[in-house]
C-alpha cells in the first residue's frame, strides 16, 4: 500500500484550547434560556459563530467522554466546539490558512479525544496544502497530511474503525484512505480503491461513512447515485448493498444507532431510516420522511443519546446569514 509519513505541512501557529468568539444574534433569535429543553436541561439548538460575510458548515464529530461536539466550517476552515449543555458554541481552531486549512468538511473524534478533519478540496491544485489534519483534544496539531497517489482528492467524511484508525472517503475517486500513528509520526495510506467496481461519475461520489455494528465493514454512501456500498474492514473488498429500491440520491451523512441506519439526504431535504444487519450487508424496512424545508442538513452525530444535526446553509445564495445552528433531535 502507498504510504506517506506525517509531519506538519504548515508552520502557522495554533492557539490551543477554546478561543472565545463574539456571536452576533440575528433578528428574532431566541435567548439561550428559550432554546433550552427544560426537561433534559439541554438546548434544542446550538448557535455557531459565523463570519460577517456569511458562513457555511458541514461536518460534526462528538467526544462522548467529555460531552463535546465539533463542527467544521466550509467557508474558511474554522472548527467550532460546543458542549452538550451550553447553547452557544465557540471557535476552537482558526481557519483562513491556519495549519494550511482554508476549508473543512467531515470531522470525527476517536476514543482518546483526537479530532480528525477532512479537507474536502483544500489540497486540490495546491500541493503545499494538506488534505487532512489531526489534533489532540487540547488543540495541539498532531498531523497535517497529503494523501498518497492522487492530486485531486476531495476528502469528504471520516469514521473511526474497529482498529482505532481513521478512514476518510474520497468524493472524486472511489477510494478510502486510512490514517493512524506510525513510528514517531502519523501515516496516511490508500486503504481501498474500488475503481473496478464503483464508477466515478459527475458530482459527489463517496461521502458519508459509518462502521457496521459488528465492526466487520464500513457502510459508505455515494451521494450522486444514491447507492450504498459495503467495504469489508479485513481487506477493503467492496460490494453493493441492496437498498430495496429506495431513493437515496443526495445521501450525505450516515448515522448508525444499533441496527438502525439514518441517511441524511441534504438538498433533497429528506431523511431515510432503515434496518441494517450487524455486518452491514443487508438493509430492509426503509422509511423516508421530510426534514425541515428551511434547512439543508448535511450530517449528524449522537451525543449523550441525542442526535445533533448540522444546518449547512448551503441553500442560501449568494451569501448565507445567521443564526447558524446545530439542531438537537431534528426529526424526532
TrEMBL record:
The keyword Electron transport does not apply. Residues 58-239 form the SMP-30/Gluconolactonase/LRE-like region domain. This is Sugar lactone lactonase YvrE. It comes from Agromyces hippuratus. Residues 1-21 form the signal peptide. It comes from the Bacteria. Keywords: Signal.
